[in-house]
Amino acid sequence: xxxxxxxxxxxxxxxxxxxxxxxxxxxxxxxxxxxxxxxxxxxxxxxxxxxxxxxxxxxxxxxxxxxxxxxxxxxxxxxxxxxxxxxxxxxxxxxxxxxxxxxxxxxxxxxxxxxxxxxxxxxxxxxxxxxxxxxxxxxxxxxxxxxxxxxxxxxxxxxxxxxxxxxxxxxxxxxxxxxxxxxxxxxxxxx
Length: 191
Known about the structure:
- By secondary structure, the chain is of the alpha/beta class.
- It has a single domain (about 5-180), classed as 3-Layer(aba) Sandwich (Rossmann fold), CATH 3.40.50.2020.
- About 30% of the residues lie in helices and about 30% in strands.
- The protein contains six helices and nine strands; from the N terminus they run H-E-E-H-H-E-H-E-E-E-H-E-E-E-H.
- It has helices at about 5-15, 35-40, 45-55, 70-85, 120-135, 175-180; strands at about 15-25, 30-35, 65-70, 85-95, 95-100, 110-120, 135-145, 155-165, 170.
- Strand 3, helix 4 and strand 4 form a beta-alpha-beta unit.
- Helix 3 packs across helix 4.
- The longest helix is centred in the N-terminal third of the chain and has 15 residues, at about 45-55.
- The protein is globular.
- It starts with a helix and ends in a 13-residue tail after the last helix.
């Protein structure tokens, strides 16, 4: 298990934890941004972070690990590798999250949903719905970083490698915008 300090050091050393004026995937603004792609480019860090998750779910008899594209793909793969089960992912088509590429789940399959970062949990909820529509069972949710400070409730066992209470604001209420600190940038993959 990683301590909070060890996990934070991994995110800092990789350049994943940034400070500035950011627009999050949820549309909210923040003075900090967690770009997990920066940490996931290093296999040694990814392996350690995924081991933390895999250990939390080792006794759950998971059949599949699934994550949303893009952020959840590498996390899903590495957690699944360590649990010795297959990994699949959902992706957006015409704005809607779907299972594609011939991926499918069967009724009764026990599934772990993973993601790199959650703020509002919207993408995770969409993936959970896809899992449930297939008749499979969402055993739990695991994330590298919970930006909500533990406020997001998925209704199942949820584990985060690092939980941070990073402030975020609606764009119209953003103190950085009001202070004229430039336009919020979106370092993530979605615009």
